């Protein structure tokens, strides 16, 4: 299957490593990732796009753990960043990979732009006219030239959750594609700027390939116009957003990625660009799980609640997007199935992982895994309720190692002043 998590007899393993042992050794809540699964996803993408000149710029926001960034840098990946903080992560994980960084985001600050200019990143994805001016000013001040793309908004609809759809004219992202040509012409005259590409990103968790093809088609047309205007446009950044299946529906990542690549390759055939892609979720979501222990089980009226030691501060996707994550016991005990809400201890009714979910009956002390939690799990975690963030473990070659220790109360309070 698409996941590295599988039962060996009654016990769940990740890439052959027993998860009960990991939960006991490192405690819960615990994020566990399979390096092998990450590598195989990157290889799938690399193989699918093998015929075209391309760079995979992994979207750091999906999971920004340094050890993962290092692994991806070693595989030749570049990175899509959205802040000075993410740039610093790339710098620490793989300084050389900074030359393969694209910088996206609707509100870049001067210090972040300066840091990226000093780091010599590949390209800025500029999202407003004001940012064109700011980037020019900063590049000039530092005596640098900024390679830039406009992130255009292609006004393409893609089926996904409204909070993670970005490619329509009502969204805050990018610049309307119809206005792009004039803005490029202006940018080309400004000091310190080198218009070098066009970028697009229509949203996240998109499983249909048609909207990707449609948006890239519109971008291709713009590139041809810009070239006719005399600009040397050599990068086409097709963004990220390629989705996975969270539930039990059959999902063959190899087959899907082949279809995705075929659709994009067909649209850019003969264009002569270096293709950039910004995948996040496809690479890391299914490699990871959140392990948690059941604290207590209780019955309130007609409802049964399974309360776990992980909460919405560890994994907010169900609360924020009504996202579905499979929840499976780390040890099958042959108990009867039971329906319950699986919830965290945080003081919000929105703090749930699943509602009316059927699982093998769970009892206090049991360990469960929330699957497909590698993307937008740890990276969206918080200290809400003054809960320290979970630890993270990376499994590689049959061995597990801690890549981030559990956050202590002391660390949470360190910046505060009485
Ligand atoms: N590039 C840009 C400009 C983006 O904004 C994003 C994601 C990506 C690439 C990577 O998209 P991916 O390949 O991972 O779909 N927290 C939400 C997802 C937010 C996505 C934000 N932008 C979730 O948990 O579903």
From TrEMBL:
Q: What is its EC number?
A: 4.1.1.20
Q: Which UniProt keywords apply?
A: Amino-acid biosynthesis, Decarboxylase, Lyase, Lysine biosynthesis, Pyridoxal phosphate
Annotated InterPro entries: Ala_racemase/Decarboxylase_C, DAP_deCOOHase_LysA, De-COase2_C, De-COase2_CS, De-COase2_N, De-COase2_pyr-phos_BS, Orn/DAP/Arg_de-COase, PLP-binding_barrel
Q: Where does substrate bind?
A: 281, 317, 321, 348, 376
Task: Output the Gene Ontology terms for molecular function.
Answer: diaminopimelate decarboxylase activity; pyridoxal phosphate binding
**Record's protein name:** Diaminopimelate decarboxylase
Q: Which cofactor does it need?
A: pyridoxal 5'-phosphate
Residue numbers bearing the N6-(pyridoxal phosphate)lysine modification? 61
Q: Which HAMAP family match?
A: LysA
For the keyword Amino-acid biosynthesis, the answer is yes
Q: Which amino acids does the record list as binding pyridoxal 5'-phosphate?
A: 241, 278-281, 376
Domain of life the protein comes from: Bacteria
Q: Which family does it belong to?
A: Belongs to the Orn/Lys/Arg decarboxylase class-II family. LysA subfamily.
| Assembly and oligomerization | Homodimer.
| Its job | Specifically catalyzes the decarboxylation of meso-diaminopimelate (meso-DAP) to L-lysine.
Domain named Orn/DAP/Arg decarboxylase 2 C-terminal: residues: 31-374
Q: Which NCBIfam families match?
A: lysA
Q: Which reaction(s) does the protein catalyse, per the Swiss-Prot or TrEMBL entry?
A: meso-2,6-diaminopimelate + H(+) = L-lysine + CO2
Domain named Orn/DAP/Arg decarboxylase 2 N-terminal: residues: 36-285
Please name the Pfam families in this protein's record: Orn_Arg_deC_N, Orn_DAP_Arg_deC
Family annotation (PROSITE patterns): ODR_DC_2_1, ODR_DC_2_2
Kindly report, in one word, the top-level EC class recorded for this enzyme: lyase
Q: Name one GO biological process term.
A: lysine biosynthetic process via diaminopimelate
Pathway participation: Amino-acid biosynthesis; L-lysine biosynthesis via DAP pathway; L-lysine from DL-2,6-diaminopimelate: step 1/1
Catalytic residues in the record: 347
């Amino acid at each position: 299957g698409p996941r590295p998590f599988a039962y060996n007899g009654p016990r769940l393993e990740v890439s052959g490593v027993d998860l009960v042992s990991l939960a006991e050794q490192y405690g819960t809540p615990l994020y566990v990732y399979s390096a092998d699964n990450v590598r195989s996803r990157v290889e799938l993408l690399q193989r699918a796009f093998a015929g075209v000149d391309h760079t995979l710029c992994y979207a750091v926001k999906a999971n920004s753990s340094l050890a993962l960034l290092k692994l991806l840098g070693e595989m030749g990946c570049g990175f899509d960043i959205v802040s000075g903080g993410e740039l610093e992560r790339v710098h620490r994980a793989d300084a050389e990979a900074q030359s393969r960084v694209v910088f996206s985001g609707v509100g870049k600050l001067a210090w972040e732009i300066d840091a990226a200019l000093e780091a010599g990143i590949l390209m800025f994805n500029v999202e407003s006219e004001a940012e064109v001016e700011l980037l020019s000013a900063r590049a000039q001040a530092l005596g640098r030239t900024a390679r830039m793309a406009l992130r255009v908004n292609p006004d393409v609809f893609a089926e996904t959750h409204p909070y993670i759809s970005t490619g329509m004219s009502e969204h805050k992202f990018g610049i309307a594609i119809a206005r792009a040509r004039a803005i490029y012409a202006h940018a080309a005259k400004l000091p310190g700027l080198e218009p070098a590409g066009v970028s697009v990103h229509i949203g996240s968790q998109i499983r249909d390939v048609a909207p990707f093809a449609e948006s890239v088609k519109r971008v291709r047309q713009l590139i041809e116009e810009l070239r006719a205007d005399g600009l040397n446009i050599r990068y086409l950044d097709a963004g990220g957003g390629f989705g996975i299946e969270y539930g039990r529906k059959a999902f063959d990542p190899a087959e899907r990625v082949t279809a995705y690549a075929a659709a994009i390759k067909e649209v850019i055939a003969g264009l002569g660009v270096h293709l950039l892609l910004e995948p996040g979720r496809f690479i890391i979501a299914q490699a990871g799980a959140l392990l948690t222990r059941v604290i207590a089980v209780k019955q309130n009226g007609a409802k049964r609640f399974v309360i776990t030691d992980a909460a919405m501060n560890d994994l907010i996707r169900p609360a924020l997007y009504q996202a579905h994550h499979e929840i499976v016991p780390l040890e099958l005990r042959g108990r009867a199935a039971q329906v319950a809400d699986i919830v965290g201890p945080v003081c919000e009714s929105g703090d749930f992982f699943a509602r009316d979910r059927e699982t093998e009956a769970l009892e206090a002390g049991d360990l469960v895994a929330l699957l497909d939690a590698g993307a937008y799990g740890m990276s969206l975690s918080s200290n809400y309720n003054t809960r320290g963030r979970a630890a993270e473990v990376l499994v590689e070659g049959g061995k597990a190692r801690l890549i981030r220790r559990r956050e202590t109360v002391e660390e949470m309070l360190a910046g505060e002043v009485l």
